[in-house]
């Protein structure tokens, strides 16, 4: 008989070894999406993922999909698209617009590649907007020559790691341009790791690999506790492409 932990009013999560093998990484259900609980979850390598009508489900898959920023090399076609469409990139200028687009624009480029946006429920949107105002959730925006939002991504930035959640595009290669802008920002500041949670075809094309959960958790602990530089990370700014 499969037993699954139910979270209560406390902010505690069960140990990772209690996660199910099938479905891979399902650890617990219940609780809430308060900023306090979400911050604790992400600091421990746990994330929420559930569809409308389901209870809140918490995951810690093994293996874990990650991208090392130094390993990402933009393709020639991406560079060509950036020039052709005169894209420019920013951070944290339009978080609400980005997460709403990720929930509504049909795509197959996040870890739930066959579940177009349905997992980004209104409850999730409001929770991540609260996290954004708390200084943890961040968006990368890509704008076209007409200053129209053409693509973007959002996730959680914690010191030296970025935990990606979802991306979207309405313009050619605009989500890939957003990813490039994120990587460029992280490389300059020697921030080495992007947590992709679960690998898929699109993420693999960006350089996503799978590592054992234990290895990821060890790296996560180091990166979120790395001594902070003088500059503040993950602030509203323009980004290079």
Please describe what this structure looks like.
The protein is α+β, with helices and mostly antiparallel strands and 241 residues long. It has two domains: 5-59, Alpha-Beta Plaits (2-Layer Sandwich); 64-239, Leucyl/phenylalanyl-tRNA-protein transferase, C-terminal domain (Aminopeptidase, 3-Layer(aba) Sandwich). Helices cover 30% and strands 24% of the residues. The protein has seven helices and twelve strands. The chain has helices spanning 35-43, 76-84, 95-104, 122-133, 174-188, 201-205, 213-224; strands spanning 5-7, 26-30, 47-48, 57-59, 64-68, 88-91, 137-143, 149-158, 161-169, 193-197, 209-211, 237-239. An eight-stranded mixed β-sheet has the order 11-5-10-9-8-7-6-12, sandwiched between helices. It starts with a strand and ends with a strand.
């Amino acid at each position: 008989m499969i037993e699954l932990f139910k979270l209560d009013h406390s902010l505690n999560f069960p140990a990772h070894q209690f996660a199910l093998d099938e479905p891979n990484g399902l650890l617990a259900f219940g609780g809430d999406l308060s900023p306090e609980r979400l911050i604790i979850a992400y600091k421990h390598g746990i994330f929420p993922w559930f569809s409308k009508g389901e209870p809140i489900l918490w995951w810690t898959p093994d293996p874990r999909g990650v991208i090392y920023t130094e390993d990402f090399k933009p393709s020639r076609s991406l560079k060509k698209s950036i020039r052709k469409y005169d894209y420019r990139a920013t951070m944290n200028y339009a978080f609400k617009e980005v997460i709403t687009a990720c929930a509504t624009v049909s795509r197959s480029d996040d870890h739930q590649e066959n579940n177009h946006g349905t997992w980004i429920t209104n409850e999730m949107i409001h929770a991540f907007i609260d996290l954004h105002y708390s200084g943890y959730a961040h968006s990368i925006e890509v704008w076209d020559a007409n200053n129209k939002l053409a693509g973007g991504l959002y996730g959680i930035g914690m010191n030296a790691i970025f935990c990606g959640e979802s991306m979207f595009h309405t313009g050619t290669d605009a989500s890939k341009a957003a990813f490039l802008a994120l990587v460029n920002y992280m490389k300059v500041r020697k921030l080495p790791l992007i947590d992709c949670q679960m690998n898929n075809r699109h993420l693999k094309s960006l350089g996503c690999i799978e590592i054992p959960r234990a290895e990821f958790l060890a790296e996560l602990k180091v990166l979120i506790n790395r001594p902070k530089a003088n500059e503040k990370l993950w602030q509203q700014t323009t980004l290079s492409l």
